[in-house]
Task: inverse folding
């Protein structure tokens, strides 16, 4: 673990590897859309990522998890010293290879020994505690967090890639007594409306300034992170969706981070007839009836947004010509 390739964090710490997908009767294969595309599950099944250790199954309710040694769990203390030396607060994403709030009994000793005390000992680190189970999160933390508020450097977040899951998870997230709350909308799979009660209220801006101190709880979204889909089966994202979230955030004073387009990006000005892998998305917000083509012509493209499969790297992360790297203030 260490310096992360994920654009919105500096470090990543995994407390363990392994998880159980969340089920959703409406989702692909009966799973939450984000779990359906879980890259961690794919990575955990690849012996390459296990190094010298022999791979064992870590996905599902009936198998164990891959835990680590003390040296691994103490790494954040080093990161905190470096951040203090550099006088810059650094973000830590916990965790990329599972869900810290999965709620299994074998995970509790790890949380109690290696997460909560370390969060309290690292005021120069901002802990991004992302979960798809925000309804469990507050019941798993120490009693004094629940009573006095989570430390100001512990930011709970949840994943919401559809309106349905936003409406289910965000109210649970915002009940957590924390200074900051964030949403990860990746891969964004439809237009999402941020409900008024999630983004405006009497406490916006009224937050403590000292990292490590208990916070004055607020119950609003502070940060929205958006990205498209990557991987071999990635589908294009309608550009209207990230634009809509960006504009809703701007209107509400919520920080907006555009992580990436994913595999597909708005097509550049290619000559009609130039071969490639294109998707035509009808202009608007609706679930796209995507038409795939190798040769978009000016007539087939009219009335459509043309997306091209160029690969994640080439697709980049510019939205309407600029990067969006906003982060809420401490
Ligand atoms: S790690 Fe996250 S995306 Fe993957 S199965 Fe668990 S909850 Fe779902």
Result:
């Amino acid at each position: 673990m260490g310096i992360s390739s994920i654009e919105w964090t500096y470090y990543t710490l995994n407390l363990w590897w392994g998880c159980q997908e969340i089920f959703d009767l409406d989702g692909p294969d009966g799973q939450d859309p984000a779990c359906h595309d879980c890259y961690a599950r794919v990575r955990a099944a690849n012996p390459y990522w296990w190094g010298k250790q022999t791979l064992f199954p870590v996905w599902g309710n009936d198998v164990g998890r891959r835990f680590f040694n003390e040296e691994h769990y103490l790494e954040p203390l080093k990161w905190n010293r470096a951040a203090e030396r550099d006088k810059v607060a650094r973000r830590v994403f916990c965790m990329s290879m599972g869900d810290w709030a999965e709620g299994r009994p074998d995970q509790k000793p790890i949380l109690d020994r290696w997460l909560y005390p370390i969060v309290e000992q690292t005021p120069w680190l901002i802990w991004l505690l992302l979960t798809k189970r925000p309804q469990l999160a507050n019941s798993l933390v120490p009693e004094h967090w629940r009573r006095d508020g989570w430390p100001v450097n512990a930011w709970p977040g949840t994943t919401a890639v559809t309106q349905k899951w936003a409406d289910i998870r965000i109210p649970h997230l915002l009940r957590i007594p924390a200074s900051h709350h964030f949403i990860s909308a990746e891969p964004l799979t439809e237009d999402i409306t941020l409900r008024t009660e999630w983004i405006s209220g009497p406490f916006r801006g009224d937050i403590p300034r000292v990292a490590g101190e208990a916070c004055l709880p607020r119950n609003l979204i502070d940060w929205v992170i958006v990205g498209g889909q990557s991987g071999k089966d990635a589908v294009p994202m309608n550009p209207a969706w990230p634009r809509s979230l960006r504009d809703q955030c701007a209107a509400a004073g919520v920080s907006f981070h555009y992580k990436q387009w994913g595999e597909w990006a708005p097509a550049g000005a290619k000559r009609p007839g130039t071969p490639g892998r294109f998707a035509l998305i009808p202009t608007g917000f609706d679930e796209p009836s995507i038409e795939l083509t190798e040769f978009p012509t000016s007539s087939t493209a009219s009335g459509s947004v043309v997306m091209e499969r160029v690969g994640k790297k080439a697709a980049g992360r510019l939205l309407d010509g600029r990067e969006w790297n906003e982060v809420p203030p401490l």
